[in-house]
Each structure stands twice: as structure tokens, then as C-alpha cells.
Amino acid sequence: SNPRARLTGAWRLQSIAHREGAEPVPADGMIIYSASGHMSAQILSPGEQAGDEIAFHSYFGTYSIDAEASAITHHREANNDPGAPADVVRRFRLVGEDGLVIRPDGHEGVVLTFRRAGG
């Protein structure tokens, strides 16, 4: 099946695990992939411990998919962290009809779990 077609749409963040084997904690946010190749992400990422500060990540740009590697590269045009790299790789796995799991390269053990929004 075509990964771009399956990724197209809005995905609501459900949880984040901060390291391999860590219990996922509830999180919120949304990532949107358009059929035209544009993307936008807003992530509210709680810390591992209750009471930890919540980090906010927001950026937009375009994306490309390497289906062989199950990888999406976000080509960020604007970012609330101006020092961050423009291009970042996200390993992805589609789960059933409405699940998306993302593992960001460079953040060992971090796992973000999404559900299709409105689905």
C-alpha cells in the first residue's frame, strides 16, 4: 500500500515514552501530513515524572518518505527552536487503520504514539 496515502491526514498524539522500556505517559499534540507534501507538528511533551515541565515543540514545512526504510524526513521551514536542524528523520510504523508510531532519529528510545484524528 502507498505510505503517503496512508499517512495523509491529521494525527493526534496519545502518549510518549522517553526511553526504551519506559512506561508511556499521556501527551497531546497533532501532526498533519498533506497529500501535497506539506506537514505541521505541534507537540506538548510532558516529562517522565509527574510535575515535570511540559515542553512545547512546533514546526512546519514539507516532508519526504523513504518507504524502504520506513522513514519520513521532515524538512522544517520554521521551528519554535531556531537552533534545531532543518531536516530530521522520523522512523514510522502504521498500526491498523488509525495508529501511527514514530521514533525520532537522534532521540534513542523515544516513542510517540498517535491515533488518526476524527477517525
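^ that was protein a. below is b, sequence first then the C-alpha cells
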Amino acid sequence: ARGSHGIAAPSANRFGHVSATTAQHVLDDFGDAVSMIIDGGPTQVGIESTIGAFTGTGPTLLRPGGIDAQAIAVVLGEPLLAADAHAPRASGTLASHYAPKTRAHLVPSHALLAEIAQHDDRDEMVAVLARTVRKPPDFDGAWFAASEDNDGYARALYSALRELDAAN
């Protein structure tokens, strides 16, 4: 009997670009450079995949991602080692690999209002992707409410970053 088979493929984003989480994102990145895009709906995880190596003294975590390292350790029966100087290089570990075009700052929730005020003082446009803070009544920039739960936030993060880039 024939069973269903999966497809293994690399990420569908250009090097250095924010990860694609929808078929439209792939089209935006590649345009006419690809002849076909199969749209299976938005990604279920949203963030990049976990990358591990089995080439050294034990299983090594090269890049954290959608599958928690602890879950992998449970299946393997041993913990994943941290990558060291001898570990293979992994995609997405450069500081700017998944960087949006929009200048971005990670700001703790307690410092958000002060950060917004600084940008307002410099007459800069501000957009906020907020996970745990509600939009202040006097904020006139773009506000994107992100899911507070980890899975929901992971599913929407790169899509929201792309939306911010599109909004300039």
C-alpha cells in the first residue's frame, strides 16, 4: 500500500530576509524567480526550525527553533550539548540573518512608553509589535497586537515583522 510522503525543502526566504510564513511572503521574496508556489496555508510554527548536529561527542544544538531542545532530549534520552567553536555552522545564526528592513529594538514592557517618547521627541515614526502591553490612548503610530502565548507569538512573529516592513 502506498503511504503519504513528506517533502523536505529549505526555507523559502532569501538569505538575510525575514522568514516567510505564507505563500504570499515567498512570492514577495522571489517573484518570477520561481515557477510555482504550493500554498499549504500559513506555517503552523512560524519561527525557524531547530537545527541539531550528530557529528561530535554528542547531540549538539546548533540553532534553537520550533521544536524545544528539551523535547528532543526526551526522545534521544540525553541532553543536547551547546554548540562550541568546533560545531558546524548553522543557517540563521548570524546576527542579522532574519533581520527586518525596519530598524527594530526589543524593549521590556516597563520601558516601552519611555522608548516611544524618545522616538517622538526625534520626530520618528514608530510602530509597536506588543505582546503584553495594551496600546496607550495617545499613541498615534502603528500598533500590532501579538499573541501573549509562546506558540501564538511564534506563529505570528515573522508575519508581523513583514507587515511592519510593508508599512515602512
